[in-house]
């Protein structure tokens, strides 16, 4: 789930904003609406993202998303992979 580029984008946006509503997330991500919904559903089902409905009694209530503790740990995996990639590239520079 976390290896999918769309899911990674969503997780990284959610890391930047502690809590964000769907419309703003859609605008920032620039993903097609269907793709964003699919990514969010996967991430919520996996326990990486939390979904919160502002007022469940209203049909047009805002829906907010935020990272769960597990989602915050998943973000650390991306950071670790980037760090490894930097090390790999720098070690190649010194190999003759």
Give a structural overview:
This protein has 96 residues and is of the alpha+beta class. The longest helix is centred in the C-terminal third of the chain and has 25 residues, at 69-93. It is elongated. Helices cover 60% and strands 12% of the residues. The mean pLDDT is 90. The chain has a three-stranded antiparallel β-sheet. It contains four helices and three strands. Helix 1 (5-16) packs across helix 3 (33-45) and helix 1 packs across helix 4 (69-93). It has helices at residues 5-16, 22-29, 33-45, 69-93, and strands spanning 20-21, 49-53, 63-67.
Give a brief description.
With 96 residues, the chain is an alpha+beta fold.
Order of strands across the biggest sheet?
1-3-2
| Percent in strands | 5-15%
**Structural class of the secondary elements?**
alpha+beta
* Overall shape: elongated
Largest sheet, in brief, is: 3 strands, antiparallel
Give the helices and strands, then pairings.
Blueprint lengths: L4 H12 L3 E2 H8 L3 H13 L3 E5 L9 E5 L1 H25 L3
Antiparallel strand pairs: 1-3, 2-3
Helix pairs in contact: 1-3, 1-4
Q: What are its keywords?
A:
4 helices; alpha+beta; single chain; 3-stranded antiparallel β-sheet; elongated
